[in-house]
């Protein structure tokens, strides 16, 4: 019996993010998915470095040392991240999750760190075969909250372990492989918004390509607040499996969309002057016909100037209309706002103005209020960009993609629903020498860093 893999990999930046920090590799022997973090561009770099370091495992027969090869390659990728940060201190804080399978026929090796996931569909039953390295999962394991509560916990995005260049403990396991097994590797852009039941029903139907497409579609239909990446792989008993690897996400180097007008690349392309063709040489010889033609030429010159002026005025009006009809989520005086216009400026004049600012009620509902309104006046909490998770702050400062006012309001709701830091919990008083501190208190003090892992103020 010869067991081989048939696989599909898909990655999408989602409906809120402006870049894709996920990287994925799917090949005949290696399936690997990394979800980068650490702000604009830095997360992309971290995930690319790790996937690129593991890619060579797909070249040769892994033999019996599946875990040894995975462990060595993963730690090598972690070291490279650390070296990159040393060379470019601006990348400090970047990191990535990693979930990877090295296929060895009747067995496979699995390495895992972070909050991406691996699932196994066997005999119609879906099983999660990785454990989330998150603060919320540690609460579930300790019996302090239920798995259902974890899905809506305010600190569900707090990752305890990741590849950041620092020392990290990996989870390494060997699993038996059977014909008919279907494996799913996914970023939390899928598992956070699509239920396990829906994932199971999707994986139970159709081939691996259709299942991968459908999972991406489901994540986007659920709001697509994060990058979403999946690998679906089937174990088959056939002579030949797939051999050509699939690269997707940040590591593929492909641009998913053309530059938007409000990006620096888009503005540069839009303002680039047209190519000027060299004029043909004109004879300088004077003739009687030249003299007689001067007056008509002057006449047509005046007409041409008038036409150009009309076109310029018309173009200015059209440009103003286009600019004023665009809305986007961005930063205004440190607050999260809906702005009207385009990012940037022209000749020192801003191309945007704040239309409204985001506000969150005590029940978690999101609304907008007029610029200049205080939280007391609005009856809800007006949030600063600093109240967002670090990666979302950078996106807001750059400005999310432009669109209609309704689209910008939808983006704001997604942002303030999914990308806010949890509210810092009140810490218990310092324990006296006679009264030992509870075991959970030091961990809570260490985890709660206002502006980094939590935010101050009402929820």
Structure, described:
Residues 279-291 have a biased composition (Low complexity). Keywords: Hydrolase, Manganese, Membrane, Metal-binding, Protein phosphatase, Transmembrane, Transmembrane helix. Its cofactor is Mn(2+). Its EC number is 3.1.3.16. It holds the Pfam family PP2C_2. The protein has 459 residues and is of the alpha+beta class. It folds into two domains: 3-252, PPM-type phosphatase domain (Phosphatase 2c, domain 1, 4-Layer Sandwich), CATH 3.60.40.10; 327-425 and 436-447, no CATH class. Helix content is 33%, strand content 24%. It has 13 helices and 17 strands. The chain has helices spanning 42-54, 66-87, 135-141, 147-151, 188-191, 196-203, 208-221, 264-271, 288-324, 375-378, 390-398, 405-418, 440-447, and strands at residues 3-12, 22-26, 30-37, 95-96, 98-103, 107-113, 117-122, 125-128, 171-176, 182-186, 228-237, 246-249, 327-332, 335-346, 349-360, 366-369, 381-382. The strands form three sheets. Strands 2, 3, 4, 5, 6, 9 and 12 form a seven-stranded antiparallel β-sheet that branches. A hairpin with a 5-residue loop joins strand 15 and strand 16 (366-369). The protein is globular. The model is unreliable at 255-294 (pLDDT under 50).
Question: Could you list some keywords that capture this structure?
Answer:
single chain, 459 residues, alpha+beta, Phosphatase 2c, domain 1, seven-stranded antiparallel sheet, five-stranded antiparallel sheet, 13 helices, 17 strands, 33% helix, globular, PPM-type-like_dom_sf, hydrolase
